[in-house]
Write a structure and sequence with these properties.
The protein is an alpha/beta fold and 302 residues long. Helices cover 39% and strands 17% of the residues.
């Protein structure tokens, strides 16, 4: 029995793992997979670090930050190869740029991975992040608070939050993707404990192999992936369109520009090096370790 902890409440991107269960990919590898919901990438990574969960699907930059500070974890595959962290702005607010957000409140959730590089993207865009007030609300209240107009903008993944906003009656938000403002980073990674990688590499190999098969199966039949999510998670049928929109974003960013051979799951060295450099320069991360200390490609063939 293996436990995978997701970064958040179940949404479309997580359907890949449920499709892998339905297709028997994990069972073929001798794995009885249990997928559990998370409450932020930081929490998901910490639950792997302390042995509560075997693997996590979480923000790569958040994992890198925690690992550099001593968390005994490592990325064994990257699923979302590009960052989806973004500022989502209500189009009725009249605001369109990072600079416009100065003097405004922006909603977010404590511990969310999207918070980490917000100041970097803001500075790169010519705005002063100290003049933008990040306001924490509960995850369950984030989109509701945004739709109620408590702030003109919110932080969130462009993979899931725009779809959730529209599903709840809001307009398509203006999206300021950090990746468009010099923030090159892997998006979401599969995280494992270093001890497991060292002592039970066969299990990690089998898990990664099954997951990569699931990713490819979702590419081939995304509707089947969403059906698996609905069947396993208890999601209701009317959430299908929203979940599919989210999954489509993930499937569109499986390869970064630096992944020349388009290897699914590859931890791309240049992307991890960029992420580490950003954290060291802008977040004052202290580490003498190279970027390669925080990921391994021994399980994805790269």
């Amino acid at each position: 029995k293996v436990t995978l902890r997701t970064n958040w409440l179940f949404y479309g991107s997580h359907s890949i793992f449920f499709l892998g269960i339905d297709k028997g990919f994990y069972e073929e590898e001798g794995i009885d997979l249990v997928v559990k919901q998370g409450n932020g990438s930081s929490n998901a990574v910490r639950l792997v670090a302390n042995g509560d969960s075997d693997f996590a699907y979480g923000s790569a930059i958040t994992m890198l930050n925690l690992a550099a500070q001593g968390a005994p974890v490592v990325a064994v595959a990257t699923i979302d190869a590009k960052g989806t962290d973004a500022v989502l702005i209500n189009p009725d607010s009249g605001l369109t740029t990072f600079k416009d957000l100065e003097g405004q409140a922006v909603l977010t959730t404590a511990g969310a991975g999207v918070n980490t590089l917000f100041p970097v993207a803001a500075r790169n865009a010519g705005a002063d992040p100290d003049k933008i007030k990040l306001t924490n609300v509960a995850e369950s209240a984030l989109v509701t608070s945004y739709l109620q107009g408590l702030a003109p903008a919110m932080l969130g993944g462009m993979d899931d939050k725009p779809a959730e906003i529209k599903a709840n009656g809001g307009k398509q938000p203006i999206i300021l993707n950090y990746a468009d403002f010099g923030v090159d980073q892997p998006g979401y990674a599969i995280v494992a404990r270093k001890e497991m990688v060292e002592k039970n590499p066969d299990l990690v190999q089998r898990f990664v192999r099954a997951t990569i098969k699931a990713v490819k199966a979702a590419e081939a039949d995304p509707d089947a992936s969403i059906r698996a999510l609905i069947n396993w998670s208890g999601s209701v049928e009317d959430q299908k369109e929203q979940a599919r929109e989210v999954l489509d974003v993930t499937l569109s960013i499986l390869y970064s520009a630096n992944n020349k051979d388009k290897v699914v799951g590859l931890n791309v060295p240049a992307d991890w090096e960029s992420a580490l450099a950003i954290l060291k320069e802008y977040k004052e991360l202290k580490t003498d370790q190279p970027a390669s200390a925080f990921y391994t490609n021994q399980f994805v063939g790269g």
